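Weekly puzzle thread! Below is a chain. First person to post its structure in token form gets bragging rights.
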Amino acid sequence: MKKRFISLLSLFILLSAWITPVEAETGSSVGFEAEALDAYISGQMSKHGIQGISIAVTSKTEIVYLKGYGTAGEGRPMTPQTPMYIGSQSKSFTGLAIAQLIEQGKIKPNDSVQTYIPWFKVADDEASKRIMVKHLLHHTSGLSEAGFTAVLPDDATNEDAVRALASAELTAPVGSTFQYFNVGYDVLAVIVQNVSGMKYEDYIQQFIFDPLEMTRTYTDPDVARENGLSQGYSRLFGFTIPQEQPHRVFEVSAGYIISTAEDLAHYSMAMDSAGYYKGKPLLSLKGMDMLFYAENGYAMGWFVEQGHIFHGGANETFKTYVDIYPLRDMSIVLLINQGYMFDHYISAPQIFEGVEDIVLESV
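Winning reply:
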């Protein structure tokens, strides 16, 4: 995948956001101009009418910059501990769960999906047998959004989503082409369940969130709301408006995990530290190599480029960036509680790339 780009289209929004910076928790080893970063984010929020942003910057095993800006809705300030939907960053947790089970010898990536879900099928019976676990991980199954038209209710389960694939038509030969496909990661979640004997949500809580001390990361929106889930925002005729964020149960594993800048900083530090967090590994070194091995630029829930590992995601009313720079031993986490075509493709990339320039230019 090509590195994100900023559109040349120049759009200006007259509405300014309420920008209230929360006291930064800054470590001793900041290698960039923190005041310049602060001013840049505040200015971009005003320019684009963004309601709330939280950010974390890590260096090695330390969070060196942690701050919230603007509002989380209903008069609440945005903080680095405010939960927000993280979109497709969720896939990286599913990839990690699969990698853990591979390392335990419970899954083989070259096995057919039917080894672990005997009833798995797509419209082509022969393709159903040939789709392997690794094809789902790397988005090379031949399945794509264009070939899958089923519409599921928000409360459908991941098993419901997998069964719905019986009508999915392949749009490329199995194993031949990168085609980003959300439901492929719902299939992986069912594999996690069948192999571990646990609900997907319980597995990632016990074996990923808890070891990483991700204490404000959720798969249940009701629990997240009880703990300060941010309001999401969209736009109407260019003006920012609050909008209810849907929660698609069947796609938690692909796009509906809820987390915070601080919790994702714990996660990104572990990913940048060979899988270790506070001296304890999530995977072996061999397992981490497997996790980040990319086919067509995509590993197990991560895009991989030279010196850059990233994913992030977009929900209807939220935008997430998680970018790791292994050669610099740094990472940047940026969460935005606003989603719309303009924000996903113009304002959010512009904000992130400016942040990236400030953080990395002097390091």
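Puzzle host: Confirmed. Bonus trivia for everyone else. The mean pLDDT is 92.
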